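Lab notebook page, bench 4
Experiment: in silico fold of construct C2
Operator: M.H.
Input chain length: 803 residues
Purpose: comparison with the prior construct
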Amino acid sequence: MKRDTASVMLMLLLTTSYTLLPLAAHAQVRAVRKTPAQSTPRATSHATAAHAAAPATAVQSDPEAITVSQTRRIAGGLMKRQHAPEATSSITAAAIAQKLTIASPIQLAATLPGANVGMSDAYGLSIRNDISVRGYDETEMGWVVEGVPGIDQAYLLPYSETWADNENLSDVTLIASTSRINDPVQSASGGEMIETVRDPSNKMGGDLSYSHGSYRGDRVFARYDSGYIGNTGIKMFASYSYTAADVFAGSGRSRKNHVDFKLQKDWGDIGRTSLFVSYTDWTNARSSPYTLAAWEKANAQGNNFSVGNYASSYVAGETSDYWKNYVYRRSNVLISLQNQFRLTHNLRLNITPYFHWTESDSPGQTSFSPDSLYNGSEKVSIDTSGMYVYTNSKGVQTVSALANAAQTQFATGVNAYVQYDPTPHNHLIAGYWYDHWNMTALNGLSALDQNGNAASYTGGDLIRDTAGDIVTGTRYQMSSDINEFYLSDTQGFLHDRLKISAGFKEMMYYLSGTNELPGSQYHYSQAIAQPMPRVSISYDVRKDMQVYINGTTNARPPVPLSTYPNLYSISSGNVTQQGTNQGKMEYAINEEIGFRYHGLFNADVALFNSNLTNHQVTTMAYVNGASVNSAISVGGETMRGVTVELSTRPFYGISPYVNAQYLHATMDNNFSYGGVILPTAGKVAVKSPKFMANIGVMYARGPFFANLMFKWVDSQYSTFMDDQSMPAYKTVDLSLGYRLPKWSAFSRPVIKLNFMNLTNTPYLSSVGTVTANAVTTRGVAGQTPSYFLAPPLSVVMTASCEF
């Protein structure tokens, strides 16, 4: 369905729903049974949960509410009964507890319907991870943790590994193709991922666990719960984890230190306040992306992919990709202060201020000639005293250098909304979200000595010209402001069996910045506004059967770093990225028809149709040797398909689980590259496998539990011309566990064994670099895409207990 047709249908549905609203006054009225919307079970290492008290502000009449409460676990927690009128899937604390303790949230989401997840290590320590849903990549999804945005706003990437440890998550929820209207998301053109952190326990206690596994993988986790402190209504928890592992192919060791803290104050019937703080210090020794030919050659040789990866040793004047110069570093702080208050019996206020700070560096290795060196567009001279200068094969004096891509950014904001129930069957939401983001970027150079080492790996000791200025092709500052207003109304009919909801939000986005390098660009700015209407209808055919239909619109601003600033070559002074003040918002129109049944067995089925304009495809790029993310504008895209999720009730402790997706995603426009029009209209979109499936069996009986999961992902194109694709792959993961009896002061001790990629199958996990064409076409030379390796068989044993 094209955009015009979809827009007309959406407007008709909006008109119809509001025409029906006045009829509610004549409908038979009965009391609405409320259920807690925010009660969060205490996640433990062995899949048990202590019920937390439901807050007085819980609202169930909101059709988009995600209920995070301890109900009967379906398929071991891999499936939860949903009520929202859109395709929604969750993995609960019970299932998370059986997964690998070290896994990242993206790894946890890998078994959710339609989640196309590629991992580059088994321990959640690599940034070379990727997720796409229904043809939308991770920069086109909203990410929310504890009610606040969870993305890096420079690239719109999630870095979900930095927000909260698995043991502290009570729920990970995926909403495909849309987002909740009251969530603070700027990148949700293709869906939303929600992470909910457990509440502090009502009683004092704690958790300890230690994991050890393949590639010298180690993890220590400790958490302490204060319980309620006297009669203050205050309880809190604090946790610390340390994770480390060697790179499975190549050299280097990755490490991560992480702290979570949550304090909750209960105000009785008035409401509650919760403060969540997380801190991460992360070092990632990366693996090199592979071309398809290099991967096939290394796979045939059986050399554990050491050939083709970053070099393990350094030879002066010869080695151009020494592994030490590709180690990624990142530090994060996230603060969320959620407040939920009942003002009257039918009026509630939710207000959440937040703060987010990040410092990162994504370096690489480069070389330059001191005789041809530029700062922006201006040629400069440097003093090479103390530098290791060699003569290259062309007889040119050359210096090898660490190319930094250092960024510092912070964001502050507040999301506030009221919920008002004018009648027992009508629910209104009205809110406002404000976000201010600021960042600085400086890609400086640090000279390497004859052993390949830099004097500083944290952005210090940068090369300066004879005038004292830092030599770089990237140096700018930018900031953005988001003002978003939203309103929705939900009306129940027929004793609330029929619910009609209509909503509207408007995003106003403003970005401005300054380029601090010599050149034609100094100041840049842009203001964009985008209205986003939505409507949904759900009907409970019976108590155990629901059907729904929805039409939603969502938008995403341009990727800031790939759109606005000019970037320069340090060797020529030429512009390598031409900034623009005319970026366009992605705009998505999504429609779904869904059916749910939860009874003798459980089934969720959704048929979807999406139309996306101003699509930007995320890819990896190199700027003066530094590895960064970029985006390519490709016009429109249409995605159609069906998602199915099935499970049964436990039978002798066994719970089968299956989900599958069929996707047909095509490009709507031809692609212009280098002044040549490539015939890409109608081609299958990149990163869009036609078929995907997960088949799992969970077992929990007595002290034993087990989880076996098979995943199949079809091949997916990596070029816009569909002339190269990443091969299909199949993988199997297995978890085994045993709950021991209480011993001394330690209760519920558990031993768990996790096998990732049980069959040790070598495969490529995700597309790293997208290109227009791999084969020369219409005079456009082919450019080879690159891919990321998937980890081989990894085995991890975990021992945990409570006290």
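Observations: The chain has one domain: 205-802. The longest strand covers residues 601-623.
Next step: discuss at group meeting.
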